[in-house]
Specification:
Radius of gyration: 20 Å
Structural class: alpha/beta
Shape: globular
Low-confidence stretches: 1-8
Pfam families: GFO_IDH_MocA (PF01408), GFO_IDH_MocA_C3 (PF22725)
Protein name: Streptomycin biosynthesis protein StrI
InterPro entries: Gfo/Idh/MocA-like_OxRdtase_N (IPR000683), GFO_IDH_MocA-like_dom (IPR055170), NAD(P)-bd_dom_sf (IPR036291)
Number of domains: 2
Distance between the termini: 30 Å
CATH class of the largest domain: Alpha Beta
Keywords: Oxidoreductase
Order of helices and strands: HEHEHEHEHEHEHEHHEHEEEEHHHE
CATH superfamily of the largest domain: Dihydrodipicolinate Reductase, domain 2
Strand content: 15-25%
Bound molecules: nicotinamide-adenine-dinucleotide
Mean pLDDT: 95
Number of helices: 13
Family: Belongs to the Gfo/Idh/MocA family.
CATH architecture of the largest domain: 2-Layer Sandwich
Largest sheet: 7 strands, mixed
Helix content: 25-40%
């Protein structure tokens, strides 16, 4: 296809959004803010919800009554429905030949996800997974510098991911636990940054925030150690309560440089050094604020993938890697010993 053909074909770009609850509403607003998007078409099975969100999203947004109409109207579809509906909704997008961006996780268990990934790849239709760290401009720049050998030989990666407040306790039993629910984002992002197979996982956790986590057979603070094939280690920490706000940072130390993302004037961390940063009232309250630029960029990249202007930076197969690592974390946390990743995880 020539550049001229592209311009004619994408004279009018329409993106469908399936599911306009918390995250779907945010994505719809971000899509509507993009110059490259002419129309945002919304569907939600709750009567009146899509029309109400369309009204608040602005002139570019319209509502339709069913998924078939959405798939027909959109050049691509963003899937922000509850997790159990993801496999079927993705397969409907594949049948319609419409590229999709699906919120994580694309499926709840490994066997289901594995079959789905095979179907996605057999279809030839692009499906991006909404792991927003990959789309964060600073994380993407870190990825670029590592690939460009500007960091040198990697020694250590450290990531921190603390929620400000625990989720509703009713959410816990179906959440999959802290590794599949919270740390899954970093189990995706850190191996993606390092670019090597993980060969060993060790995980530990404690209940320090609320007994409800123990009642759900979960922990509320966890530490993960990943060992990579080249010998570098990563330490991932995550927790369900941070009194100062939502804190996500990644630090990378290599033979040529030492870099951090997520360290800025809104980081909820107080340095005790006289000239160090102090957490203030504008510290990030939650993930939507911390990852605002990432979510916006995620939509811009999705539109570029739909238009054939760029490659998919978050393919479905990578979700198998992070899920497998999360399951290994569960096993290690319960057994108290490291788990070898027998078949190398290819990133
Ligand atoms: N990437 C992230 O940071 C992030 C953050 C939050 C949620 N999520 C993921 O996003 C997904 C949605 O989470 P949420 O918190 O917005 O949930 P939500 O319950 O607030 O919204 C889901 C919406 O989907 C609608 N819906 C239900 N079945 C549908 C169907 N078959 N077709 C179309 N719409 C349907 C519901 O009526 C509801 O409006 C989940 O998979 C979750 O894991 C990702």
């Amino acid at each position: 296809m020539t550049g001229l053909d592209l311009r004619i074909h994408w004279r009018s770009m329409r993106i469908g959004v399936a599911g306009v609850g918390r995250i779907g509403t945010m994505h719809a607003g971000n899509l509507a803010s993009l110059d490259a998007v002419d129309e945002v078409v919304l569907f939600d099975p709750v009567p009146g919800r899509a029309a109400a969100v369309a009204a608040q999203t602005g002139a570019k947004a319209t509502a339709v009554d069913d998924l078939d109409a959405l798939l027909q109207a959109g050049d691509g579809v963003l899937i922000a429905t509850p997790t159990p509906t993801h496999p079927e909704t993705i397969r409907r997008a594949l049948s319609a030949g419409k590229p999709a961006l699906c919120e994580k996780p694309i499926a709840s268990d490994y066997a289901e996800m594995s079959a789905l990934v095979d179907d996605i790849e057999a279809s030839g239709v692009e499906v991006l997974v909404g792991f927003q760290r990959r789309f964060d401009p600073a994380v993407a720049e870190l990825h670029r510098r590592i690939r460009a050998d500007e960091v040198g030989k990697l020694y250590l990666v450290r990531s921190t991911g603390n929620d400000a407040e625990p989720p509703d306790f009713g959410y816990l039993p179906a959440s999959g636990g802290i590794f599949r629910d919270l740390l899954i984002h970093d189990l995706d992002a850190v191996p993606w940054l390092v670019g090597e197979p993980v060969v060993e996982v060790y995980a530990s956790g404690s209940v320090l925030v609320d007994q409800a986590f123990a009642d759900a057979d979960d922990v509320d603070n966890a530490v993960v150690m990943l060992k990579f094939a080249g010998g570098a280690h990563a330490v991932l920490v995550g927790g369900r309560h941070d009194p100062l706000g939502y804190d996500h940072r990644i630090e990378v130390l290599g033979s040529k440089d030492s870099l951090a993302v997520g360290v800025d004037s809104r980081t909820p961390l107080t340095s005790l050094e006289p000239d160090g940063p102090k957490a203030g009232p504008d510290a990030y309250p939650g993930f939507p604020e911390r990852f605002h630029r990432a979510y916006l960029n995620e939509m811009a990249v999705f539109v570029d993938v739909v238009a054939g202007r760029t490659q998919n930076p978050s393919p479905a197969r990578d979700s198998l890697t992070s899920l497998r690592l999360a399951l290994a974390c569960d096993e290690s946390r319960r057994s108290g010993v490291p788990v070898k990743i027998e078949q190398e995880v290819v990133v």
